[in-house]
Amino acid sequence: MTKTNTLLNYAGLQNFGNTCYLNSVIQAMYFCESFRNQVLSYKCDKENLLTTLSELYKQMNGNIPGKQNGIVHPKRFYNCLCMHNEIFNNDNEHDAHEFFNYILNNIADLVQNDLKHTSCNVNWVYDLFQGVMTNETTCLCCENISTKDEFFIDLSLEVESNISIYFALKNFSKKELMCADSKYFCNVCKCKQEAKRRIRIKKPPKLLALHLKRFKYQDSLRRFTKLNYKVSFSQELRFPNLIGEKYNKLYKLIACVAHCGLTISSGHYLTFVRQGNGWLLFDDNAVENLPYWNIESFFGGSTNMPTRSETGYILFYQQTI
């Protein structure tokens, strides 16, 4: 594909066989500006995943040599990844969400370790991606409500046919009846009781990563199959399940990692990102403009329509000020 002069400002990434899972996530996170700025400013004498990612982003940014005809070769970062985690040290197709979780947690650990040698106590990875959810359990006998807070760096949402991201978030917080073998031990009643449980968002993150659970294990087939249901995602979003209105901020879609194919072990990943008032599509080393109306082609199909294999898989939303 021949790029225009404008598109040459954006770097495609070379695929080393089946590394589209890596390229797509790296591109999506690059366009999370606050994350990119922190990575670009990172310095460490010892090579690790964050130093190699920083070098890669500098090449993509044009700050250091390494981009040829608009294409960057992330070989050093990939070699470092394989050295730190043998799971990725093969030619298999890997899950982009698994890679996203691994790389973000690894970077957070590196930053946390660096904080031991400084007066700063704020881990910028957690500051950007970490939110707080509250598990609320209501005893149906005494009506006592117990709560427990948990941190999260992304939310995995169940998908259904013809659902929107907003309603997938609502379903994430729907009440669940705890009965029969799953009764709840109530500390007030001092015995197991039927209860209702739900999850609510106490503090949403600045950068919201939403993972659509499009792969489901089928016992009869003994493998994962893909759910090609239509899941629409808007360019703007508000949380439907917040505790209070303090953090009721508007989110804007800035990037989406999409999966193309029918199984988790095959297919292809690509990414589209917001850039200014438009959108760009990154398909490994290829970069092209994406008309905003074409975003709907990544919603997926439905049970009564021909299914689409190109489906949104990981969505990145940024909190507006």
Please give a structural write-up.
Its EC number is 3.4.19.12. It is an enzyme of class 3 (hydrolase). Keywords: Hydrolase, Protease. GO terms for molecular function: cysteine-type deubiquitinase activity. Belongs to the peptidase C19 family. By secondary structure, this protein is of the alpha+beta class. The protein has one domain (7-319): Cysteine proteinases (Cathepsin B, Chain A). Helix content is 24%, strand content 32%. It contains seven helices and 21 strands. It has helices at 20-30, 33-40, 49-61, 75-84, 96-115, 124-129, 165-172, and strands at 12-13, 67-68, 71-72, 131-139, 145-152, 155-158, 163-164, 176-178, 184-186, 191-193, 195-203, 207-213, 215-218, 223-226, 231-232, 236-237, 251-260, 268-275, 278-283, 286-289, 310-319. The strands form six sheets. Strands 6, 12, 16, 17, 18, 19, 20 and 21 form an eight-stranded mixed β-sheet that branches. A four-stranded antiparallel β-sheet has the order 5-4-11-8, with no helix packed on it. Strands 1-3-2 form a three-stranded mixed β-sheet, covered by helices on one side. Mean pLDDT is 91; it is low at 1-5 and 302-306.
Offer a few descriptive terms.
single chain, 321 residues, alpha+beta, Cathepsin B, Chain A, eight-stranded mixed β-sheet, four-stranded antiparallel β-sheet, 7 helices, 21 strands, 24% helix, globular, disordered N terminus
What's this, in brief?
One of its GO terms (biological process) is proteolysis. The protein has one domain (7-319): Cathepsin B, Chain A (Alpha-Beta Complex). Helices cover 24% and strands 32% of the residues.
